Amino acid sequence: MDKQIIRNMRQSIKEQLENLSSLKFQRKVWIANSLPGIWWDWSDAVCGYFDDLRMSKSDKAPKSGLIYHVNDGILTKAEANIIEPFNDLFDSFVDKYPAFPTIEEYEKILNDPQWIKITKFAVKILKKINFDKLPS
């Protein structure tokens, strides 16, 4: 796969994880609507991560779409192993709230202990994986 495509995909994964790792950012975007020009809601968080980045599980990739990223040279196997438990945790949380939450439901999401665990897990991934470096 072309190095620029790999670089772009790694950057996209990093950006999604950065958004998922920050309760402060989520509160500003989801509740306060205080970041003009930024539109990123719960549906974007879920679909952007699982669908756009091909992180969801399927019949062809029962462990998750991470296998595609490893096969395409976007992630190393070690990186995929770091991300996979996050995917499982996030995936188990997705259906707990509606696709288009109300402000009150956003408050519940942001205060849900499982969501807080997910955001902290995203922080750990960002510390463990240098997404700016291409896999060797």
Structural write-up:
This protein is mainly alpha-helical. It has helices spanning 3-21, 23-32, 42-52, 66-71, 77-94, 103-111, 113-128. The chain is globular.
Topology of helices and strands:
Elements: H1 3-21, H2 23-32, H3 42-52, H4 66-71, H5 77-94, H6 103-111, H7 113-128
Summarize this structure briefly.
This protein is mainly alpha-helical and 136 residues long. It is built from seven helices and no strands. The mean pLDDT is 89.
Salient structural properties:
mainly alpha; globular; 136 residues; single chain; 7 helices
Task: Please trace the helix and strand order, writing H or E for each element.
Answer: HHHHHHH
- The best one-word shape is globular
Unreliable parts:
none
The average pLDDT is 89
Rg of Cα set = 15 Å
Strand content: under 5%
Number of strands: 0
Can you count the helices? 7
> What portion of residues is helical?
55-70%
Biggest pleated sheet = none
Head-to-tail CA distance between termini = 13 Å
Helical/strand content category = mainly alpha
